[in-house]
């Protein structure tokens, strides 16, 4: 992602594109000269290793009707210092739900046999132009799937499976190295995405936030980038916090839910007859419903 918010606004492109300028494009693709990517630093290497080794608990995701399933992509990459950053989008203000909010690339499952990673990659392809799971990025870039996180529950009674991936900018076979922030330009679907920005993953464990409690614990993070201020809150913030907890093997500096995701609550809501195949526009979890479900043994 480039630091300047001059993203190409086109509908449904399927791949990232190099910023092909005279300064970084060589006619010979085997000697493509682009800004070099710093290797992962020691802390980031350890964080990625923990995510690779993470095994989530049994999930309710595959037991749910197709109409209730969604997945998001937590796409990580190393910045110039080797620190991990996460890609976040701003939803278009014209959308019917969560308009103008910060979100991870993702969306609803398309067919019953589609895996969470397939859903997340397909939606990321549609929204920001990242190559989908069946396509390749231009060298030296590649996407490594690291792990899935416990499923989360949206207020709209949609269940969301976070999928963590690492965008590599180094090809050991060719020796090519590139910085994603300098060399890749997201191709946005302007109908769904207004902007793309990045945030330091470890920052989601630090106390630079305002928070409040409701039936659902809410955290807010404010990311300053290119004279813009982006607010990350709600379920999106919670998902990234959980990924950071696994990656850095420590708890946040602020009060938070001790459990990961909402697998137990999802199971209880299913027992109550919620989360059925028929979704209604009026579906929204209330405090009373959550309290009733929580009392189930």
- Can you tell me the overall shape? globular
Distance N terminus to C terminus? 46 Å
Main sheet characteristics: 8 strands, mixed
Compressed to H and E, one letter per element, the order equals EEHEEEEHEEEHEEEEEEHHH
Structural class: alpha+beta
CATH superfamily: Nucleoside Triphosphate Pyrophosphohydrolase
**Proper CATH architecture:** Alpha-Beta Complex
What is the CATH topology classification name? Answer: Nucleoside Triphosphate Pyrophosphohydrolase
CATH class category label: Alpha Beta
Average per-residue pLDDT, rounded, comes to 78
Low-confidence stretches: 1-35, 209-218
Rg result: 19 Å
InterPro entries: CoAse (IPR045121), NUDIX_hydrolase-like_dom_sf (IPR015797), NUDIX_hydrolase_dom (IPR000086)
Keywords: Hydrolase, Magnesium, Manganese, Metal-binding
GO molecular function: coenzyme A diphosphatase activity; metal ion binding
Pfam family, one: NUDIX
List strands and helices in order, with pairings.
Elements: E1 8-9, E2 17-18, H1 42-53, E3 69-78, E4 84-91, E5 102-103, E6 106-108, H2 116-128, E7 142-148, E8 152-153, E9 159-168, H3 180-183, E10 184-185, E11 187-188, E12 193-200, E13 209-212, E14 218-225, E15 228-233, H4 234-248, H5 263-271, H6 287-294
Parallel strand pairs: 1-11, 3-9
Antiparallel strand pairs: 2-10, 3-4, 3-6, 4-5, 4-12, 7-9, 8-9, 13-14, 14-15
How does this structure look, described?
This protein is an alpha+beta fold and 297 residues long. It has one domain: Alpha-Beta Complex (Nucleoside Triphosphate Pyrophosphohydrolase), CATH 3.90.79. Helices cover 21% and strands 26% of the residues. The chain is built from 6 helices and 15 strands. It has helices at 42-53, 116-128, 180-183, 234-248, 263-271, 287-294, and strands at residues 8-9, 17-18, 69-78, 84-91, 102-103, 106-108, 142-148, 152-153, 159-168, 184-185, 187-188, 193-200, 209-212, 218-225, 228-233. Strands 3, 4, 5, 6, 7, 8, 9 and 12 form an 8-stranded mixed sheet that branches. A 3-stranded antiparallel sheet has the order 13-14-15. α1 (42-53) packs across α4 (234-248). The longest helix has 15 residues, at 234-248. The chain is globular, with a radius of gyration of 19 Å. Pfam families: NUDIX. Residues 67-222 form the Nudix hydrolase domain. Keywords: Hydrolase, Magnesium, Manganese, Metal-binding. Its cofactor is Mg(2+); Mn(2+). GO terms for molecular function: coenzyme A diphosphatase activity; metal ion binding.
């Amino acid at each position: 992602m480039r630091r300047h918010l001059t993203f190409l606004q086109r509908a449904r492109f399927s791949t990232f594109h190099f910023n092909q300028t005279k300064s970084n494009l060589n006619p010979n693709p085997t000697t493509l000269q682009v800004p070099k990517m710093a290797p992962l630093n020691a802390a980031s290497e350890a964080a990625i290793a923990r995510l690779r080794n993470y095994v989530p608990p049994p999930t309710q995701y595959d037991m749910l009707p197709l109409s209730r399933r969604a997945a998001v992509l937590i796409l990580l990459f190393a910045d110039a210092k080797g620190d991990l950053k996460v890609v976040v989008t701003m939803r278009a203000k014209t959308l019917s739900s969560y308009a103008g909010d910060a979100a991870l690339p993702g969306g609803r499952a398309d067919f019953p046999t589609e895996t969470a990673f397939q859903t997340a990659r397909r939606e990321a392809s549609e929204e920001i132009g990242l190559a989908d799971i069946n396509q390749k990025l231009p060298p030296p870039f590649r996407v490594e799937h690291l792990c899935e996180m416990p499923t989360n529950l949206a207020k709209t009674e949609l269940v969301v499976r976070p999928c963590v991936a690492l965008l590599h900018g180094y090809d050991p076979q060719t020796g090519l190295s590139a910085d994603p922030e300098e060399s890749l330009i997201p191709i946005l679907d302007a109908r769904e995405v207004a902007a793309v920005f990045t945030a330091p993953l470890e920052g989601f464990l630090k106390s630079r936030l305002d928070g409040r409690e409701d039936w659902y614990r809410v955290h807010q993070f404010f990311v300053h980038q290119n004279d813009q201020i982006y607010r990350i809150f709600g379920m999106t913030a919670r998902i990234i916090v959980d990924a950071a907890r696994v990656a850095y093997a420590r708890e946040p500096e602020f009060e938070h839910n001790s459990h990961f995701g909402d697998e137990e609550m999802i199971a209880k809501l299913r027992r109550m007859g919620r989360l059925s195949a028929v979704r209604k526009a009026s579906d929204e979890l209330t405090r009373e419903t959550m309290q009733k479900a929580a009392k189930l043994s």
